[in-house]
Write a structure and sequence with these properties.
Blueprint lengths: L1 H38 L2 H5 L2 E3 L5 E3 L20 H5 L5 E2 L5 E4 L2 E4 L16 H10 L17 H4 L4 H13 L16
Antiparallel strand pairs: 1-2, 3-4, 4-5
Length: 186
């Protein structure tokens, strides 16, 4: 009977240890994803800004990675801007909308909101988008426009892209319908 109890105790300990290891692996992946999203500069364009101290824009913690606010104004660019303003591109005050020779691009909602974010995307959609520069990674999808440096992400490892995906799936969903890109004015 003592051997049976020791066996049960050992099984419980091994089960708990296995669960803790699995939990720490998931946590490590989320931490890695958060790190990559942060150093990758995702907040620079995908998080709306509020005015911080000293007039420096700061990320709006209530709208992390929610993209261009749906009712926010956006910049307009004309070919003469290159000569008259010496400007290749213009941006809004939140850095969530950019205009240039490609038209107007808007930082998409990266939160897991199913209606307006990437909640309906799969991990494969995300990794394919980062590798191909096509929205949702669809071969016939629209191009991911400047200033999104998707070409820098295409060289990342599958594990790193999966970690980013896991982190993006873990953040709060924010409903925010980002406008579709606009073609250049002729």
């Amino acid at each position: 009977m003592i051997g049976f109890r020791k066996g049960i105790f050992l099984a419980i300990i091994l089960t708990i240890a296995g669960c803790e290891k699995k939990q720490s692996t998931v946590q490590t992946q989320l931490e890695r994803g958060k790190y990559l999203v942060t150093v990758g500069g995702c907040h620079d364009c995908h998080t709306p800004k509020i005015m911080g101290s000293g007039g420096v824009p700061a990320p709006d913690e209530k709208r992390l990675l929610s993209g261009h606010p749906e009712k926010e104004r956006y910049p307009r660019w004309a070919p003469t801007d290159m000569q008259e303003r010496n400007a290749m591109a213009l941006t809004n005050s939140m850095l969530t909308a950019w205009s240039g020779p490609w038209g107007v691009s808007f930082a998409i909602n990266l939160t897991p909101d199913k209606a307006t974010g990437i909640g309906e995307w799969s991990e494969q959609h995300f990794t394919d988008a980062m590798r191909t520069g096509k929205h949702q990674g669809q071969p016939n999808g629209r191009d991911i426009l400047p200033p999104m440096p998707w070409f820098n992400y295409k060289i990342m490892s599958d594990d790193d892209l999966k970690a980013m995906w896991a982190y993006l799936r873990s953040i709060p969903a924010i409903q925010n319908q980002v406008p579709l890109p606009q073609p250049p004015k002729k």
